[in-house]
Amino acid sequence: MLAISRPGRCLVLTFVTVLLFGCGTLPEATHESPEGSKAMNEFLVIAHRGASGYLPEHTLEAVAMAHAMGADYIEQDVLLTRDDRLIVLHDLYLDAVTDVAERFPGRQRADGRHYAIDFTLEEIRTLRVHDRVKADGRPAFPGRFPEDSRIFSVPTLEEEIELIQGLNRSTGRVAGLYIEPKSPAWHAGAGKDLMAAVLGLLARFGLADAEDKVLLQSFDSDALRYAREDLQCRLRMVQLIGENSWDESPTDFDLLRSAEGLAEVAEYAQGIGPWLPQVVDINNIDTSDISDMVNHAHQLGLFVHAYTLRADQLPRGVGSMANAVRILVDRAGLDGVFTDHPDQVIAQLPARELP
Q1: What is d(CA 110, CA 105) in angstroms, rounded to the nearest whole number?
Q2: Angle of the 157-171 helix axis to the 194-204 helix axis, nearest 10
Q3: How far is CA 121 from the centre of its chain?
Q4: Which residues contact 41 (CB under 8 A, 6 or more apart)?
Q5: 115 pairs with which residues across the strands?
Q6: The model's pTM
Q7: Are 119 and 89 spatial neighbours (Cβ–Cβ below 8 Å)?
Q8: Where are the domains of the chain?
Q9: Within 10 Å of residue 48's Cβ, how many Cβ atoms?
Q10: Do 258 and 291 form a contact (C-beta atoms < 8 A)?
Q11: Angle between helical axes of 60-69 and 157-171 (0-180°, round to 10)
Q12: What is the dihedral angle through the alpha carbons of 114, 186, 8, 239, rounded to the nearest 10 degrees?
């Protein structure tokens, strides 16, 4: 059995990747038939932190909008508070998307950040959520929802599940949950079993089997193995793949991208979630540098959902969302994509109609 965990920090990869497709301008996408290809028909659209291109990420409002847009799955990043409540938040700390520094001066750690695990749910309920900002206060995505808005709040995982299940019932259109327990090893170091807490809450909602429309994702291969083997989790799992330079987890992502590493993943997971530049790196439009990782994964029975496609961050050479989707589906062979703009991806899938 391979040792996927890496003992230390690896060198930063030296390749330079234009986010998806490099330079040059692609011709507008065309479809051979109104029904589209089988791949187009089955391509999954995953709302990245909800409809985060339009509303602040992970808010209940962003979740509702993603559902209304017709997303197949809606993503939840999950953390534990000081009093062991599960909240939906991407970062371990609250600073980038809330007014925590204003409301709780002096509660930051030595690195200047306010970590969610240091606050109770009651305290977090008092925070106002805004669109993501950089460390200097400038918007991370200029032109999105005004970052000075203070009308949103941090939801719990329980609230998001109730909202999605309620909308599934009232609309008859079923969206699934795509959950990432954030940094399980970091939580374990603080004496908290995040994976067990997430699975326990899902079980309370009757979500515990592979047939349920729930996907459990993590960058940490040890955490997924722990869930599968020790916690007897039956849900479908997705091994996220990053870069070793990110220090996202002890997992050796260089190894995971190899045929040998993917075979190891197939022992405990049903899919992989690579970073888009690991899949498509087109330095020459005519030859299309498409990674063989997708083919290797498919040969092992693994599906591939890559992250993250953003309409407001398309490289100049792509030209349009239509071209981006065509390349990801027809050239790269992806089974789905995480996107901040689910409606714009769905609009390019011939067999799909916006709600």
Answers
A1: 13
A2: 30
A3: 24
A4: 35, 349, 350, 351, 352
A5: 93
A6: 0.89
A7: no
A8: 38-92+156-346
A9: 29
A10: no
A11: 30
A12: -110
Pair of tokens at residue 75: 């993503």
- Rounded CA gap, 159 and 143, in Å? 28
Exposure b/e, 307-325, CB count within 10 A at least 16 = b: bbbbeeebbebbbbbbbbb
pLDDT for the residue 100: 98
Burial class (CB in 10 A: 0-12, 13-18, 19+), 161: buried
d(CA 167, CA 162): 9
Which candidate in 58, 67, 90, 187 is catalytic? 90
Which pLDDT score, from 0 to 100, does residue 38 have?
56
Q: Out of 48, 114, 130, 305, which one is annotated catalytic?
A: 48
Q: At residue 33, does pLDDT exceed 60?
A: no
Q: Minimum mean pLDDT among 112-116, 185-189, 244-248: which range?
A: 244-248
Distance CA 214, CA 48 (A): 15
Query: So what's the architecture of 38-92+156-346 in CATH?
Result: Alpha-Beta Barrel (3.20)
Count the Cβ atoms, other than its own, within 10 Å of residue 83. 11
Does residue 58 carry a catalytic annotation? no
Please tell me the distance from the alpha carbon of residue 29 to that of residue 21, in angstroms, as a whole number.
14
Q: Quick check: 8 pLDDT over 60? A: no
Which among 155, 156, 138 is positioned nearest to 147, based on CA atoms? Answer: 138
| 118 close to 107: Cβ distance less than 8 angstroms | yes
Q: What sign for the dihedral angle of Cα 124, 130, 134, 140? A: positive
For residue 249, give the 3-state DSSP assignment.
coil
Residue type, 240: L
Return the higher-pLDDT residue of 258 and 9. 258
Phi (first) and psi of residue 87, to 5 degrees: -115, 160
* Residue 30 reports pLDDT greater than 50: no
φ, ψ of residue 128 in degrees (nearest 5):
-105, 130
Tokens 């899938």 belong to residue: 349
| CA distances, 102 to each of 108, 114, 127, 154 (Å) | 11, 11, 9, 16
Tell whether the model's pLDDT for residue 14 goes beyond 60: no
Residue 202 structure tokens = 């899902």
Query: Active site includes 90?
Result: yes
DSSP 29: P
